[in-house]
Write a structure and sequence with these properties.
The protein is an alpha+beta fold. The chain has a single domain, classed as SH3 type barrels (Roll), CATH 2.30.30. It has a seven-stranded mixed beta sheet, with helices on one face. Strand 6 and strand 7 form a beta hairpin. It is globular, with a radius of gyration of 16 Å. The two termini are 27 Å apart. 10% of the residues are buried.
Length: 97
């Protein structure tokens, strides 16, 4: 593989990504701005995990820093909790750590 091939591969792999730190900073500072978020569902009580879910056009409801949780307000008025380490996409950008 020549340097040009590596550069193209590297550029392609870094396109359309965002760090978790950037996601949290954006969500926490722009509370009224709607966003789309995809994450892995997990329910410790029922011992169920692994399915992906997407919420569209949600806004931040509250922050629980002790448990690394962000609660979002859905369009239908319901509030849902999302563990920050289970976020996979933010506004169609791949979340990297």
């Amino acid at each position: 593989m020549c340097n040009q091939d590596y550069t193209i591969l590297y550029a392609h792999s870094t396109m359309n990504t965002i760090t978790l730190k950037e996601v949290l900073n954006t969500i926490d500072t722009h509370r009224e701005q709607p966003f789309d978020i995809t994450f892995i569902k997990a329910d410790v009580r029922r011992k169920v995990a692994g399915k992906s879910a997407t919420y569209q056009q949600v806004v931040l409801h509250s922050i629980d820093r002790d448990n690394s949780i962000r609660r979002v307000l859905l369009k239908n008025g319901k509030v849902r909790a999302i563990h920050i380490r289970l976020i996979t996409h933010y506004n169609n950008q791949l979340v990297i750590y």
